[in-house]
């Protein structure tokens, strides 16, 4: 973890990795996360698919991963490389994380918790540019769909009257 991160950032990042992949013993440096997120922005922009809501989501993911504010600001103003044959897509670190990048594409393009057929087609096109096979992309899509079903099930089971209703009860206490 980068020494620029606060103790709070470290707690958040530790928790996130423990929840996400079950392991918080090897955490990325903030600069590693920034590089990953810039590649994600480049991938989205290559297909003309990056709007401010999507960029905000990417920045939010970076924040959860412990990126300090000045680096978040850098992501906010980052000018994507929109070239069709971006050489960064073939770099070793991109090849080793392409499955994570594709998973993030599903997350980014479903900000409203709905993914549209044209977005799925976009993800398959972009995933293939990264060197993933159709079968690998299908597996990630299945994972994404399972995660969405679980999220919906969790929300309805834990908060049958809605989270906002539960939150209002707590707010009555102060």
Automatic annotation (TrEMBL):
Protein name, per record: TerB family tellurite resistance protein
Protein species of origin: Adineta steineri
Superkingdom classification of source: Eukaryota
Classification of source organism: Eukaryota, Metazoa, Spiralia, Gnathifera, Rotifera
């Amino acid at each position: 973890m980068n020494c620029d991160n606060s103790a709070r950032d470290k707690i958040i990042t530790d928790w996130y990795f423990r929840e996400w992949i079950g392991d918080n013993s090897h955490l990325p440096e903030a600069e590693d996360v920034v590089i990953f997120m810039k590649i994600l922005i480049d991938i989205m922009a290559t297909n003309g698919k990056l709007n401010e809501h999507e960029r905000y989501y990417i920045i939010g993911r970076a924040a959860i991963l412990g990126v300090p504010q000045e680096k978040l600001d850098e992501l906010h103003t980052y000018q994507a490389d929109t070239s069709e044959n971006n050489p960064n897509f073939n770099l070793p670190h991109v090849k080793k994380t392409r499955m994570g990048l594709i998973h993030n594409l599903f997350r980014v393009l479903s900000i409203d918790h709905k993914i549209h057929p044209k977005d799925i087609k976009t993800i398959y096109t972009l995933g293939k540019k990264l060197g993933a096979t159709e079968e690998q992309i299908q597996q990630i899509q299945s994972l994404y769909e399972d995660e969405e079903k679980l999220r919906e099930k969790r929300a309805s089971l834990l908060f049958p009257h809605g989270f906002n209703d539960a939150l209002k009860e707590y707010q009555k206490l102060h």
